[in-house]
Design a protein that fits this description.
heterodimer; A: mainly beta; Immunoglobulin-like; 3 domains; 5-stranded antiparallel β-sheet; 4-stranded antiparallel β-sheet; 4 helices; 6% helix; B: mainly beta; 6-stranded mixed β-sheet; 2 helices; 28 strands; 44% strand
């Protein structure tokens, strides 16, 4: 990024013994980026005294400080940072970089050289120009991709084309019922928001209190989804991306609620299609019902006969009912094992060992279920 | 401050080198711990601050610098905290994302974890606020520290897809931390599978794999139903002389379970002790004693701050359905004066520090 910035130096009070050099200098780093400010013109005695202070001594900010300008006024307190005496100048390096698109002000009060000298004050504004605008983000996909979702659907994944601004997700998401009215209590709203590390995927949970049986939110407001009813998940374009720009367009996903899915995922029903040997054709698993797309990316591994995981790429297709694994190297004939992490869930939160809700009060297993299930398959010569 | 007075006070800039506390036990590294984010905070053994770093999928223990500071008093009030944080961070206050506020029980100085903006890669910061309202960024570039990775990324040896190749999108949103009897307890919520794990890690940290995940089940007010649900916030609490964790769930009630039951590889069922009604999204919780009785103070996203009596907590066990959005189990009052509270921590025995409507202030415990 190239930083262009303008400096305006204003002499607020110019003492009789005026400084010869410019009193405030800007230190520039890579690409002309302003990284520090320097105060010029202090006597060696003063500099020697200041050099003995800790680098973050608050007293040093009485001499030199940098403020963010908000509506032309300095936002107090001053920016945090480190002070150093370098040669004959006092340098202030902000703890955090000056941000593109904002304006800052350096304030310098040189200590008087004698009790008779009138105090002086200099200031210099630093405007860091904003980088050229990028393409606004857009909704790239919403999962599950099926048009019929179970009444006890647990979550959506919202994928964006570029990183989003965090902290304001829920005000831009609506679930519209068949009559066009929004269900204002459809989703679980948590302050942290459930993003991936890049800020490009949000996990949106239906309010579990309205999904689970017997809980008060469900008793009072009913389930969010009713079988046979049509819904629209609407994302409004006022949602800002990480650069502060609104989305390119609104987005909506239409779906119909289907019957509940209340059983654990039965991995014994999976159909495994072995690829031909000496090819990189994909190994394919077909599931009787859609599984969670994010979990499908990492919960199923392929191990060779020595139990070593095989490297390759996973593709999820057919409305999350098909899992394909394309190995980095050609298949050899032999025995293989699919190793599935039992945390793999369907779209209603049922996993490989238990349904989302277990109707066995008093008899629930006291031990955690196995971490993996293993499904052998063979590649013929 | 006038220019004359500014320089009249210059001689008072005395040499006072900041000293660093002697290394607390367990802080085995020196340098920059590499925080990618600063989320929930908790204080450990004296001089140790635990920082939850969800973006870095780690917990970092930082040795705090020693030094004189002004304790926050009962009449403390600092308005527009976000704007003041914005000043020291060099960004508008509206861009500051405050993640947690915790009071150091030793110094009674507040520590505020925040992000310098709302972008996913925003720089983290921990800023101290003392009793005079002075803000100071905690320097983390050269500290004594220890850290432990949270197993939020998919296990490398069991993945075949993108996750195994370093492209994992899985992340744990850390929602609360507490240090109890030598162990750090961590509540969090995965952005993928829906589980009810509560992690505990011994401190000093050992190997990363000492993290234990414990399944916690709770009743769903219908005697035959058990479900998974993430713990949102929790406090250590004694019930009948037995150390317990009192946990508030994302969607359901207050639950207790014994600390002794939290063992790796086992599944325990919590006891539901209160149902606090609909729209209950807990944010933060503290316990305190007043006039010989113990209370909980629970900040709630939609329903204000609740003062909950713990009378009968050892006898409470809700298994029957609670209908009509009502209240069952422990009794509570909503504290109108604390409306809008988003952060809450204990400040000594008689006060709490709250962040409400942008103002950080000390309030008497109700």
């Amino acid at each position: 990024m190239t930083y262009r910035f303008c400096f305006s130096c204003v002499l607020v009070f110019f003492a009789a013994n005026c400084l010869g050099a410019e009193p405030i200098r800007i230190v520039q780093g890579d690409g002309g980026k302003p990284t520090a400010v320097e105060a010029v013109g202090m006597t060696p005695d003063v500099l020697a005294r200041l050099a003995k202070l800790p680098t973050d001594d608050p007293g040093l900010s009485h001499i030199l400080a940098v403020y963010l300008l908000t509506d032309g006024r300095a936002q107090r307190p001053e920016m945090a940072g480190k002070y150093e005496i370098i040669g004959d100048v006092l340098r202030f390096t902000p703890r955090f970089p000056l941000r593109a698109g904002l304006t800052y002000r350096a304030d310098y009060f040189p200590p008087p050289k004698s009790p008779q000298e009138s105090p002086a004050h200099y200031e210099k504004d630093i405007s860091v120009s904003a980088p050229p605008p990028k393409e606004p983000a857009k909704v790239a996909a919403i999962y599950p991709s099926a048009a019929i979702l179970p009444e006890n659907q647990l979550r959506f994944y919202l994928h964006f084309s570029s990183p989003m601004r965090l902290g304001d997700a829920y005000s831009h998401i609506k679930l519209l019922k068949e009559d066009g009215q929004p269900d204002k209590r459809a989703f679980l709203e948590i302050g942290e928001e459930l993003w991936d590390p890049t800020g490009q995927r949000l996990t949106l949970l239906f309010d579990p209190g309205r999904t689970k049986r017997g809980l008060k939110p469900r008793e009072e407001f009913g389930p969010v989804l009713l079988p046979g009813h049509k819904y629209k998940l609407v994302i409004d374009k006022d949602w800002l991306d990480a650069d502060g720009k609104p989305l390119a367009a609104n987005f909506e996903k239409r779906f119909t609620a289907g019957p509940m899915v209340e059983e654990a995922v039965d991995y014994k029903q999976w159909k495994i299609s072995s690829p031909p040997t000496r090819t990189q054709e994909p190994l394919v698993i077909r599931f009787p019902r859609p599984l969670d797309r994010a979990l499908l990316q990492w919960t199923i591994a392929v191990h060779d006969s020595a139990g070593k995981p095989i490297e390759g790429d996973v593709t999820v297709a057919d409305e999350e009912r098909r899992w394909e694994f394309r190995p980095d190297r050609s298949w050899s004939a032999g025995d293989y094992t699919l190793v599935a992490d039992t945390r793999l869930e369907d779209s209603a939160g049922n996993n490989l060992t238990a349904p989302f809700e277990v109707d066995v009060f008093g008899t629930a297993a006291k031990e955690i279920a196995p971490e993996y299930v293993r499904l052998p398959f063979k590649i013929s010569p | 401050m006038s220019l004359v007075w500014r320089w009249a006070s210059l001689p008072a800039l005395v040499l006072c080198l900041a000293s660093v506390a002697a290394a607390a036990d367990g802080l085995d590294q020196t340098g920059n711990p590499g925080l990618k984010s600063a989320g929930p905070l908790a204080f450990g053994p004296k001089g140790v601050l635990f920082v939850g770093d969800p973006m870095g999928a780690q917990i970092v223990a930082i040795g705090l610098p020693a030094g004189e500071s002004t304790a926050i008093g009962a009449d403390f009030k600092l308005e527009n905290l976000a704007d003041k944080l914005g000043g020291v961070l060099g960004i508008p206050g509206t861009d500051v994302a405050i993640k947690d506020v915790a009071v150091d029980p030793a110094s009674k100085v507040a520590y505020v974890s925040c992000a310098r903006g709302q972008a996913p890669d925003a720089e983290p910061a921990i800023v101290t606020v003392d009793g005079k309202g002075n803000l100071k960024v905690l320097a983390t570039d050269k500290v004594q520290y220890a850290k432990v990775a949270l197993a939020s990324a998919p296990p490398a040896n069991a993945t075949a897809g993108k996750g195994g190749k370093g492209g994992s999108a899985r992340q744990l949103a850390i929602t609360d931390l507490a240090f109890v009897d030598g162990k750090l307890f961590i509540a969090g919520m995965s952005n993928e599978e829906f589980n009810s794990s509560l992690r505990s890690i011994e401190f000093p940290f050992k190997a990363a794999d000492t993290t234990t995940s414990v399944e916690i089940l709770h009743t769903a007010h219908n005697a035959a139903i058990e479900t998974r649900s993430p713990v949102r916030t929790f406090v250590p609490f004694n019930v009948g002389g037995q150390p317990q964790i009192l946990a508030a769930y994302q969607c359901t009630p207050l639950v207790t379970f014994p600390v002794s039951g939290l063992k790796s590889g086992t599944k325990i069922r919590g006891t539901t002790v209160a149902e606090l009604g609909n729209r209950n999204t807990p944010l933060d919780m503290i316990t305190y004693e007043k006039e010989g009785k113990q209370y909980l103070l629970l900040a709630n996203q939609a329903r204000g701050v609740m003062k909950i009596s713990t009378d009968g907590i050892d006898k409470s066990n809700l298994t029957a359905p609670v209908t009509g959005g009502g209240v069952a189990g422990l009794k509570y009052d909503t504290i109108a004066a604390l409306e809008g509270t988003t952060q809450l921590d204990k400040l000594g025995t008689n006060n709490a520090l709250v962040l409400a409507k942008g103002t950080l202030s000390a309030v008497a415990l109700p």
